[in-house]
Design brief:
- Residues 2-63 form the HTH iclR-type domain.
- GO terms for molecular function: DNA binding; DNA-binding transcription factor activity.
- Residues 64-247 form the IclR-ED domain.
- Helix 2 packs across helix 3 (35-47) and helix 5 (77-93) packs antiparallel against helix 10.
- The protein has 259 residues and is an alpha+beta fold.
- It is 46% helix and 18% strand.
- The protein has ten helices and eight strands.
- It folds into two domains: 2-66, Orthogonal Bundle (Arc Repressor Mutant, subunit A); 76-244, GAF domain (Beta-Lactamase, 2-Layer Sandwich).
- The chain has helices spanning 2-14, 24-31, 35-47, 64-75, 77-93, 136-142, 147-157, 170-183, 220-225, 227-244, and strands at residues 51-53, 59-61, 96-103, 106-113, 129-130, 186-189, 196-204, 210-219.
- The strands form two sheets. It has a six-stranded antiparallel β-sheet with strand order 5-4-3-8-7-6. It has a two-stranded antiparallel sheet with strand order 1-2.
């Protein structure tokens, strides 16, 4: 049973925006399965609504994923607690605010609010994955991990360069994460997107563990003029959300743990 579940996850992981449709033979080759095994697995996932079989006999994600996504977002305490704070920040300061978690070594965006001065950041839409090493959110989340875990993430996903400011060496990343833990916030100074700066802060649960991160995304010219103010505001927002999740104690704190 466990093996079947793992194979099912492997199938679902193949579907991306770049490749939303797969055939039985293609999936079998990609996962190292026999065609018969792949076909049986795909039929089971289609019967459960997680996949949809096209008239041509190929497969796409099924509509049940939308239903599960709605339930997740409507019932997740983190998102429901963070949303009012994010809306208040965007309304007050006019900027874009992001909420994200670390999911299998990458930053997964859970929510996003935009103010009247915000610039459009298309790559950070809800449900998007981004590399952790080049974003303030990712650095906050990586800073909560042990060095071994950060190394494994870097080996798995790499440290690709997006702008001239992107960190691409592991030693430099470790030094940056030490700074994050010392400051309590992380910066992205035009590291993922040129002309865009971010400052991120951790969100802690009732045990004191970092479970998510919150950030401001601000045009570079405006950010450099008000860097300290944005830092103070986002840190205070992170503290408020953490306390609403049951955290008590000095904020922020960094209890590294293996994921």
């Amino acid at each position: 049973m466990l093996g079947s579940v793992r194979k099912a996850f492997g199938v679902l992981d193949l579907f991306t925006e770049e490749r939303p449709e797969w055939g039985v033979s293609e999936i079998a080759r990609s996962l190292g399965l026999s065609k018969a095994s792949a076909h049986a697995l795909l039929c089971s996932l289609a019967e459960g609504g997680l996949l949809h079989r096209t008239p041509e006999g190929r497969y796409r994600l099924g509509w049940r994923v939308v239903h599960l996504n709605r339930i997740l977002f409507q019932t997740a305490p983190l998102r429901s607690v963070a949303r009012p704070v994010m809306e208040d920040l965007s309304r007050t300061y006019g900027e874009t605010v992001h909420l994200a978690v670390l999911e299998r070594g990458r930053v997964l965006y859970l929510d996003k609010t935009q103010g009247n001065r915000a610039i459009q950041v298309n790559i950070t839409r809800e449900g998007a994955y981004l590399y952790a090493h080049a974003s303030s959110l990712g650095k906050v989340l990586l800073a909560s991990l042990e060095e071994k875990e950060v190394r494994e993430i870097a080996e798995t996903h790499g440290l690709p360069r997006f702008t001239p400011n992107t960190i691409t060496h592991l030693d430099e990343l470790f030094s940056e994460l030490e700074g994050v833990r010392a400051r309590g916030v992380a910066y992205d100074i035009e590291e993922y997107v040129e002309e865009l700066c971010c400052v991120g802060t951790p969100i802690l649960d009732h045990t004191g563990q970092v479970v998510a991160a919150l950030s401001f995304a601000v045009p570079a010219y405006r950010f450099k003029e008000m860097k300290q103010a944005y830092r103070n505001v986002i840190a205070e927002a992170g503290r408020r959300i953490s306390e609403a999740l049951g955290f008590e104690g000095r904020y922020p704190q960094w209890r590294t743990r293996s994921r």
